[in-house]
Design brief:
Shape: elongated
Order of helices and strands: HHHHHHH
Structural class: mainly alpha
Number of strands: 0
Mean pLDDT: 86
Distance between the termini: 35 Å
Strand content: under 5%
Low-confidence stretches: 1-12
């Protein structure tokens, strides 16, 4: 742990965040905190909602995938395609964050989240063939993605200067 004077951010979490931020800036350089400059719609969810919503969604998604794995004979049974779709949507879900927040690629973030939405819809359909309850557990995720897609579209349309700046860098 870094040697700091008493009272100068002497908690471990700050030290860890500072080290991660330093490493990130070393790799990708300094970036604008896009959240501070975005023209966002008034109907967006409040920031405090994101952590509990995503936690709940991931719990439901994880349990749904487990149900499909069990009901569909694992990776070599009928669950192979549904679980492949599930894994690919996890990758797509992960990819949206750096596209949007790190690289400020608003247009590509919109394209990516539309592909993600389609993938999750396909996941629900294929889950339903294996385990109906598992498919129902994925529906709130698709609902949240629908809101996130509308939000991404709104931000893309109302922040052309951010997209232009990102494309010129």
């Amino acid at each position: 742990m870094a040697n700091v004077a008493k009272g100068d951010h002497d908690d471990v979490s700050y030290d860890g965040r500072a080290r991660r931020e330093t490493a990130r800036r070393t790799v990708v350089g300094p970036t604008l905190d896009i959240r501070q400059t975005l023209n966002r719609p008034s109907w967006r969810p409040p920031n405090y909602m994101f952590a509990p919503v995503w936690t709940t969604l991931y719990l439901g998604m994880g349990y749904a995938s487990y149900m499909v794995y069990r009901s569909g004979g694992g990776f070599f049974g009928a669950a192979k395609i549904p679980l492949t779709l599930y894994a690919s949507q996890l990758v797509l879900n992960w990819a949206w964050t750096p596209l949007f927040f790190e690289f400020h690629q608003l247009k590509w973030s919109l394209v990516e989240i539309c592909v993600l939405w389609t993938n999750v819809a396909g996941c629900i359909v294929t889950f339903h063939k294996i385990n109906k309850v598992a498919s129902y557990l994925m529906i709130p995720y698709l609902g949240w993605l629908s809101l996130a897609t509308a939000l991404t579209y709104n931000i893309y349309k109302n922040n052309p200067e951010i997209s232009a700046k990102a494309n010129n860098e």
